[in-house]
Amino acid sequence: MTTGPATTGPATAGPLAGIRVLEVGHMLAGPYATMMLADLGAEVVKIEPPGGDISRQVSDAYFASLNRGKRSVRFDLTTPSGQERLGELVADAHALLVNLKPSAIHRLGLTYEALKKWNERIVCVALTGFGLDAGDDPAFDYVVQAATGVAALTGDPAGPPTLPGYSSADNSSGLTAALGLLAQIVSGRGGQVEVSLRDVMLSQLNYRASAYLNEGVEPRRLPLGAHSYYVPAQLFPTSDGHLALFITHDGFWKSFAAEAGIEGFPAMAERAARREEVLDVVTKALATDTATAWETRLRPLGVPAAAVRTLPQALAATPEAIVTAGEFRLVRGPVRVAGYEPEYGPPPRLGEHGP
């Protein structure tokens, strides 16, 4: 099997040791993608304009959360000297990941067609809102969520559309871009890779989109985030707090019903057909105890359930997920590889590693 240009390192080295990735990006999606690669051992060189990535202006903690463990070089890509420096870096790199407007990507020569003269095996990933040749319409996270139907699916049916409390489109697109980059490196071929926020979010509506395209079932919002197929699978109020309960098959229901003192509705199809009746009896049963108590009672039975926690509560409950990167405390990378522990270096100072 062709593995591309990666080199073999010691067992304790990151799986991407020997891979060099260039980043020309700002804010969230692109920097998040390359940070995931850096966490896994890749050398990531962040090419910043003279004024730096604009996320440096948000806050130091914001910048650190997306750029730990990278190197920073600073030069102006709009100048001949900047283009020459870019070519020098491309000649010795495996990949370049860019998240800018399509017109800027073309204008600055950040495509495979423009860069292959320096390195025919370079992988060029363009992370855009709607596609590299789709124009420059604004494509911020919230805009894409609205445009792809995600916002319309979120929130209480009696209320307005709702956006989640974090940048789901940017983060999902960053992970997808990292996957596309690595896939092309493994192929051993250079080339252009495209990932758009719109395509990523439509892809993540998988079963919702399939139900509409194949069965004509238009998705609708349900109270308390209820699942469209499984019953009961949603948030429930308890005597103190809310509980997320996710009953996906009859075995889970049998265990839950026995603990909650509920009789009947043994089959999934029956529970779906009698949704309101099931939700009524489950709501009454769960109101007899607190959310954390129900979690404690149901977890040993293997029933998927969790009390709704705030972010501070969630972080306090998982101290092993918090790492130190220079002066910053951050959430560790989500991929864990046996025999390898990332060093989580600090975010780079602007231009720290050269012009």
UniProtKB/TrEMBL annotation:
A Gene Ontology molecular function term for this protein is:
CoA-transferase activity
Q: Does the keyword Transferase apply?
A: yes
Q: Which UniProt keywords apply?
A: Transferase
Q: Which InterPro entries match?
A: CoA-transferase_III_domain, CoA-Trfase_fam_III, CoA-Trfase_III_dom3_sf, CoA-Trfase_III_dom_1_sf
Q: Where is the signal peptide?
A: none
Q: Which domain of life is it from?
A: Bacteria
According to UniProt, the name of this protein is CoA transferase
Organism lineage reads as:
Bacteria, Bacillati, Actinomycetota, Actinomycetes, Kitasatosporales
